[in-house]
Amino acid sequence: xxxxxxxxxxxxxxxxxxxxxxxxxxxxxxxxxxxxxxxxxxxxxxxxxxxxxxxxxxxxxxxxxxxxxxxxxxxxxxxxxxxxxxxxxxxxxxxxxxxxxxxxxxxxxxxxxxxxxxxxxxxxxxxxxxxxxxxxxxxxxxxxxxxxxxxxxxxxxxxxxxxxxxxxxxxxxxxxxxxxxxxxxxxxxxxxxxxxxxxxxxxxxxxxxx
Length: 210
Known about the structure:
Residues 1-22 form the signal peptide. The protein is α/β, with parallel strands linked by helices.
C-alpha cells in the first residue's frame, strides 16, 4: 500500500491546490441533488485497481529509468562552444541585501540595500571551478591536470555537456554538471574549457584555448 498512499497524497495535494471561492451566487436555474461519486473515493478506487493490476509498479519503474537516464546524460547547456579565442575578465560577486538579516538574537548584521562582497567575508575561500565539455577528451585531460595542480579538495570540475557519471567512473574523481546553465550564465561563460578562481575580492574568469 506504500505506493498507493504516496499516489493518493499527490492526488490530494493537487486537488488542494485548486483555487476556490465561497459565497452565495444566487439561483440561476433548476437545482438537482448531487449524485456524483465523492472525488477522493473515486481516486482511491482507481488507484487500488491500478495497484492491483500492477500498473503503479510499472509507472514507478518507468519513472526511475527516466530519472537514471537524465542523471547519466543531462541535457547539454545551450550556447556553450569550444574556446576559439581565449578571453579573461573579472566577476564581482557582490550582492545587494534585499531586506534586513538578523541572527537568532535579533541582531541585524546585514541591512537592506547594503552591498556585500562575500569574498571580503570569506578570505579563506580558495576554490577553483573548471568548466568543460565532457565529450572532449582534451578538455577532460585539462580538467584533471587542473585538479592535480590545485588539489582535488580545491578543484570543482563541472561539465556543460556529456555524462558526469561516466566521466566520474572513468577518472575516479567527482565531476558535477551545470544544471540549466546556472553557473555559466552567472559568470558569462560561453566557451569551454573555462576556469573561475579568486583574485583579490573578485573572481577571475578565463576561457582557455587548448
